[in-house]
Amino acid sequence: MSLDKRQFMGATLAALASASMSKLALAQAPFPTRDLNGIIQFGAGGGTDISMRGYAPHAERVLGRNIVLSNRPGAAGAIAANFVRQQPADGYTLLMGAEPQALFRVMGVADFDYNEFFPVNIAAMANTILLVTRPDAPWNTMQDILSFVQANPRRVRQYLSGIGTVPFTVNLMISRLTRFETLMVPFDGDGPAIAALQGGHLDIGFLTSAAAIEHVRAGRLKALGVLSDQPFQGIAPMTNAPSLAGLPRFLPWGAWFGVFVRREVPDAAKARLVAAFREAGNNPDYRRMMEGRGNTMLNLGGDEAQRFINRWTSTTAWLYQDAGQARVNPETLGIPRPR
Question: Which helix (H) or strand (E) holds 84?
Answer without folding.
Answer: helix 78-85
